[in-house]
Amino acid sequence: MIAVGLTGGIGSGKSTVADLFAARGVPLVDTDVIAHRITAPHGIAMAAIAAQFGPEFVAADGSMDRARMRALVFGDEAARKRLEAITHPLIRAETERETREANGPYVIVVVPLLVESGSWKTRVDRVLAVDCSVETQIARVMRRNGFTREQVLAIIARQATREARLAAADDVIVNDGATLETLAQDVQTLHERYLALSRA
Ligand code: ADP
């Protein structure tokens, strides 16, 4: 079983590409979903979060009080590090468990910050980057999230550059001016390559 790490900047089309692999029966492991689940009601990160940050960071339903935590870590790098020291190892462990338990010749592991957060590249067998221009990212995220241009630019500024992502990638899907049909063809080509690699 090989693990393919799928990454890309905000609005590049990661989720769209992941869905096209899923439609071909490929199991997906999504680190964003896992990150959310561990801080959901009675998630496995909640005891440590309550102990580190205090019960006021736990909402009535047992989930993390996201608004409160966001406000804390926004301007407090040390607090962000403390939170990540709890969540990152749990996300890694859960990702490994789900990858191990997945059924299929290969698995797609969606890691939005694969290039930014050090060790992910060594935890997957291949890296697939979804690439598009910054202008395309801005247009898509303004439309999808109702953000302003400045808000999207601020998010992009905190992510890896296009060049860094392409340098880390073994495979690239260009999703600029692509229709869903051409995107599906690109996914199909890669799907066949990954099936062949998993048999090799
Ligand atoms: P990401 O997961 O990387 O943030 P998404 O897959 O959610 O990106 O794509 C961002 C937005 O752009 C979504 O609303 C999606 O439907 C749209 N989108 C992505 N790729 C295309 C495309 N090739 N053609 C039209 N719309 C697209």
UniProtKB/TrEMBL annotation:
Molecular function, one GO term: dephospho-CoA kinase activity
GO biological process, one term: coenzyme A biosynthetic process
CC terms in the record's Gene Ontology section: cytoplasm
Keywords noted in UniProt: ATP-binding, Coenzyme A biosynthesis, Cytoplasm, Kinase, Nucleotide-binding, Transferase
Organism superkingdom: Bacteria
Localization (cell): Cytoplasm
Catalyzed chemical reaction(s): 3'-dephospho-CoA + ATP = ADP + CoA + H(+)
Keyword Nucleotide-binding: yes
Record EC number: 2.7.1.24
First-listed, main subcellular location of the protein, grouped into a coarse class: cytoplasm
Sequence positions that bind ATP: 11-16
The protein's annotated pathway: Cofactor biosynthesis; coenzyme A biosynthesis; CoA from (R)-pantothenate: step 5/5
Keyword Repeat: no
Pfam families, per the entry: CoaE
Record-linked HAMAP family: Dephospho_CoA_kinase
Function: Catalyzes the phosphorylation of the 3'-hydroxyl group of dephosphocoenzyme A to form coenzyme A.
Family classification: Belongs to the CoaE family.
Protein name (record): Dephospho-CoA kinase
Gene: coaE
